[in-house]
Design goal:
The chain contains five helices and eight strands. Strands 1, 2, 3, 4, 5, 6, 7 and 8 form an eight-stranded mixed β-sheet that branches.
Length: 188
């Protein structure tokens, strides 16, 4: 009987591990949740999704264009006409970003960046907008690059970003994000 006593805690630990593993969601389930959250966010905000980019480049108040990559964006201001060139450093600022999954659940909290610190990446150098840091949250992402073929320096956009196009942390956590008034403040 005494031989079973040390084995009981081991059985409990193994049972807990197996139970917790069976509770985690698969990547497919997380991606389905993400799609539903984005769809619900669009519906909650009465957004109209355009299949074609407006010929005149002008968006109505609730219109968003969906790219083939799955990014949704609305051009608020198309900028000054200066287009980004390969290896230009691009500076970006934004009013705030919001986790779409929590927003559709009623959480209105947002992440507001430091207004004095722009985020930068080099156009054409993928590592500058897809790299990760284990100590700091950098929201740089591929989704910030995609609209640059449509707009110029000084442009202002609103974006709905699925996790696959988001920052390292958004992708890791399968978190879709909404950005309000993302500005391309400088190309050089």
């Amino acid at each position: 009987m005494k031989k079973w006593i040390p084995g009981i805690p081991a059985i409990v630990v193994v049972s807990c591990i197996l139970f917790s593993c069976s509770q985690s969601k698969s990547l497919q389930e997380l991606l389905q949740e993400e799609k539903k959250a984005i769809d619900r966010f669009i519906a909650m905000n009465d957004l109209v999704i355009l299949k074609d980019y407006p010929k005149d480049g002008v968006f109505k108040e609730k219109e968003f264009f969906r790219t083939g990559d799955g990014l949704f964006f609305q051009v608020v201001d198309s900028g000054n006409g200066t287009r980004v060139r390969l290896l230009n450093e691009v500076s970006v600022r934004f009013d705030y970003n919001q986790n779409i999954k929590t927003a559709v659940q009623g959480d209105s909290s947002v992440w507001v960046p430091n207004p004095y610190m722009p985020y930068t990446f080099v156009y054409g150098i993928t590592q500058t907008y897809t790299s990760a840091s284990s100590t700091t949250y950098y929201p740089n992402c591929q989704a910030w690059v995609l609209p640059l073929s449509y707009v110029g320096e000084g442009a202002v956009l609103n974006l709905i970003i699925p996790s696959a196009l988001g920052s390292y942390m958004d992708n890791l956590n399968v978190t879709p994000v909404f950005y309000r008034n993302l500005r391309y403040t400088r190309f050089n």
